[in-house]
Description:
The chain has two domains: 1-180, CBS-domain; 195-352, Reverse transcriptase/Diguanylate cyclase domain (Alpha-Beta Plaits). The strands form three sheets. A six-stranded mixed sheet has the order 9-10-8-11-12-13, with helices on both faces. With 353 residues, the chain is an alpha+beta fold. It has helices at 43-53, 73-84, 94-97, 111-120, 141-165, 167-179, 192-209, 223-230, 232-247, 273-289, 321-337, and strands at residues 36-37, 57-61, 67-72, 99-100, 105-106, 125-129, 135-140, 213-220, 255-260, 263-269, 304-310, 342-344, 351-352. It is globular. It is built from eleven helices and 13 strands.
Amino acid sequence: MPMPAQGFAGTRTGCHTGVAVTAGELQACLDGKVETISPETPLAEIVRRMDRTGQSALVVTDADRHPVGILTERDILRAYARELRGEAVRGCTARDLMTPDPVTLSLEDRLYDALVISQSHRIRHLPVVDDRGRLVGMVTHPCLINAHLRLIDEQSERLERAVARETEHLARTNRELLTLSLTDALLGIGNRRAMEVDLRHSLMLAQAHGHPLTAMLIDIDHFKLYNDHHGHLAGDEALKQAVARIRSAIRSADRLYRYGGEEFLLLLPGCDARQARQVGVRILEAFARDPVPHAAVPLQRLSVSIGIAALPANGEVSLTPEAFLEAADRRLYAAKAAGRNRLCGPGDEMQAA
């Protein structure tokens, strides 16, 4: 049964819920007339249903209305493309064509969390379930964006009124506006708050469905020395250069966030510890291959230390987001203690560039 996202209270992760929002925000975006089909529905009936209703996505549910898959127009186009290639698709059912284990939302999820989940997973249609996992409707990515923009407009209007009233109210409303951002203003990657939402939801889904998931904490070595020696403006530029090198070594499906200061968190969905280690080696090599000068250290260039955490392969141990980050954090500091410019993962020997 698909599981909606659950909240967690941070320790070192520093979670917060600063936006002034209330439960039930998704009601404004919810389409309660979503079409459902069974896994045994044939392709021809699926096409007729989409044509009759004008809906671009159908939710596949079991007998108790628990979502087990989702079918979009793109899935139908892929099926007919297969037929053009000579493959037999006429006998296909929803089970053969659907995307299984769909990402779902709870009615109690906040609008901001829903938008983060939609963007990070690149999903345009999100089924919404009640507290028993039963389908109650659907929200779409465009609707979430519009609702999010309306919320920002409302906050902006409150900000303008606050200017005329009192300085303290102005500052408080401005802080609320800042928390609505999904990205780090300097680096153009996900910010800490978006990371906390994505990590919580990705970890829940991976453990619910037995999928691999790894996370990396990546810290730039001796960055305070860099700022002291080169200046803070050069430090900002070095952070951008570091992000470019990390991005050059990862997949488009991997998600990079600024964890704080010169530290980054990288989520690698579908990667086990061995595959994540290969990604980590590529990151180390990217910094060595295209060096950013750092005159204040013997290496004479920027380097990074990496700590890797992975879900247990047997799925027997359930991890909280705090425990998952703590595992990566311990290995990051082990890599630093061993001399920096290296990675440390579960059960692995450390490797330097």
